[in-house]
């Protein structure tokens, strides 16, 4: 397994949260922000964690915040910004809107790394999840070229890389739930 010293945790917390209407990263679940849930899940597995976000409210977390190097271009640009500024070979990338994610699931991703792979991502309910994934730092060149051509789809970018997809057991899939709307938030808080 890759040593935790070689892994940076990258939390994507930029964007517009337009479907939620309020910043998703600072929503509270069990009195803890979504971002803090991700930090706690990642912490045992990585050397250090950064948040990629242009939102100064995210400075309240006791971890480094780095800014997008390509603005207003969505998660793929956030991913690139994190990889571009990372000092380690491997990067565990998690979006801030999956607050039920666990260390156990993230550990499975890291355990599945094999030499030569660019990306290890999860799949659940026939849906791949490229924003809960391990990225080799070398991916950044391909991602930059795609962004320069106007590409915005993370799944397309991942399809251009050497990617391994891990099928998650059905009984764990509820931990991957992606919270984008107020209805989805209400469903996990009530
Ligand atoms: N750093 C960074 N993160 C982003 C950017 N856009 C989206 N994200 C993050 O990527 C993840 C997935 O984002 P989406 O749900 O597709 O977009 P969103 O802007 O958060 O929300 P919507 O406006 O409702 O689509 C979330 O964790 C966002 O915080 C961006 O431009 N920069």
TrEMBL record:
Tell me which cofactor or cofactors this protein depends on: Mg(2+)
Q: Which UniProt keywords apply?
A: Cytoplasm, GTP-binding, Magnesium, Metal-binding, Molybdenum cofactor biosynthesis, Nucleotide-binding, Nucleotidyltransferase, Transferase
- List, for all copies, the residue spans of the domain called MobA-like NTP transferase: 9-155
Q: Give the residues the record marks as binding Mg(2+).
A: 97
Q: Which GO terms describe its molecular function?
A: GTP binding; metal ion binding; molybdenum cofactor guanylyltransferase activity
Cite the InterPro entries for this sequence.
MobA-like_NTP_Trfase (IPR025877), Molybde_CF_guanTrfase (IPR013482), Nucleotide-diphossugar_trans (IPR029044)
Q: Biological process GO terms, please?
A: Mo-molybdopterin cofactor biosynthetic process
**Where along this sequence does the record place binding of GTP?**
12-14, 24, 72, 97
- Compartments, record wording: Cytoplasm
Under Enzyme Commission nomenclature, its number is 2.7.7.77
Catalysed reactions, as listed in the record: Mo-molybdopterin + GTP + H(+) = Mo-molybdopterin guanine dinucleotide + diphosphate
The family database entries (Pfam families) matched by this protein are listed as: NTP_transf_3
Q: What's an example GO cellular component term for this entry?
A: cytoplasm
- Stated role: Transfers a GMP moiety from GTP to Mo-molybdopterin (Mo-MPT) cofactor (Moco or molybdenum cofactor) to form Mo-molybdopterin guanine dinucleotide (Mo-MGD) cofactor.
Q: What is known of its domains?
A: The N-terminal domain determines nucleotide recognition and specific binding, while the C-terminal domain determines the specific binding to the target protein.
Query: To which protein family does this belong?
Result: Belongs to the MobA family.
Name listed for the protein in its UniProt record:
Probable molybdenum cofactor guanylyltransferase
Q: Which organism is it from?
A: Pontimicrobium aquaticum
Q: What would be the name of the gene that encodes this protein?
A: mobA
């Amino acid at each position: 397994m890759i040593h935790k010293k070689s892994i940076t945790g990258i939390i994507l917390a930029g964007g517009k949260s337009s479907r939620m209407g309020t910043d998703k990263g600072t929503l509270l679940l069990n009195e803890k922000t979504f971002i803090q849930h991700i930090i706690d899940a990642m912490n045992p597995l990585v050397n250090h964690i950064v948040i990629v976000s242009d939102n100064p409210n995210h400075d309240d977390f006791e971890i480094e915040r780095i800014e997008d190097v390509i603005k207003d271009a969505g998660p793929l640009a956030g991913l690139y910004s994190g990889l571009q500024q990372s000092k380690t070979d491997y990067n565990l990338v998690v979006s801030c809107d999956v607050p039920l994610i666990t260390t156990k699931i993230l550990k499975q991703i890291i355990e599945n790394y094999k030499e030569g792979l660019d990306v290890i991502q999860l799949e659940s309910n026939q849906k791949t999840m490229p924003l809960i994934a391990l990225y080799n730092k070398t991916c950044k060149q391909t991602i930059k070229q795609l962004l320069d051509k106007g590409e915005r789809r993370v799944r397309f970018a991942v399809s251009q890389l050497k990617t391994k997809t891990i099928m998650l057991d059905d009984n764990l899939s509820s931990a991957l739930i992606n919270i984008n709307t107020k209805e989805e938030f209400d469903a996990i808080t009530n």
